């Protein structure tokens, strides 16, 4: 299994242990890591490498957000990076108490990439046509992405597990 971490995070895959397919032919991504996981999976398939399962945990889905929202996120990050990241991580755990997560170096370009990334049905359908099973896990109480719009989008090309009362980390308490 190959796992890609969320924005500013590392080693958070333990939060998804109940869902992760541990097969060596599985690629997983959480939040921003879902974007990186898609790119990696596409590269591996071009090299004729085997990928059976593609799992996305709370994929970064901001294509339904307006330009004002995206610009405010970038302004907040530029103004006070540490404050922005603290508020971001707190929001990831809402409506529950914030837990400890390991952080890594990050930059404005990564934040901009995740905010402006647009998922494309045709790219995901291409994976499916190559025999890759696509699984998406979304929490109904996610305060980072628009869970309902993400669910509706991914339902067209994936098996979507919509977890009642779960937050961005798919935790229910």
Structural topology:
Blueprint: E1 2-4, E2 9-10, E3 26-30, H1 32-46, E4 53-57, H2 67-79, H3 81-93, E5 102-103, H4 108-116, H5 121-129, E6 133-139, H6 147-154, E7 159-163
CATH superfamily: Alpha/Beta hydrolase fold, catalytic domain
- Uncertain regions spanning at least 5 consecutive residues: none
- The portion of residues assigned to helices is 25-40%
Largest sheet entry: 5 strands, parallel
What do these coordinates show?
The protein has a single domain (2-163), classed as Rossmann fold (3-Layer(aba) Sandwich), CATH 3.40.50.1820. Strands 1-3-4-6-7 form a five-stranded parallel β-sheet, with helices on one face. Strands 2-5 form a two-stranded antiparallel ribbon. The model has no long low-confidence stretch (mean pLDDT 97). The chain contains six helices and seven strands; from the N terminus they run βββαβααβααβαβ. It has helices at residues 32-46, 67-79, 81-93, 108-116, 121-129, 147-154, and strands at residues 2-4, 9-10, 26-30, 53-57, 102-103, 133-139, 159-163. It has 173 residues and is of the alpha/beta class. β6, α6 and β7 (159-163) form a beta-alpha-beta unit.
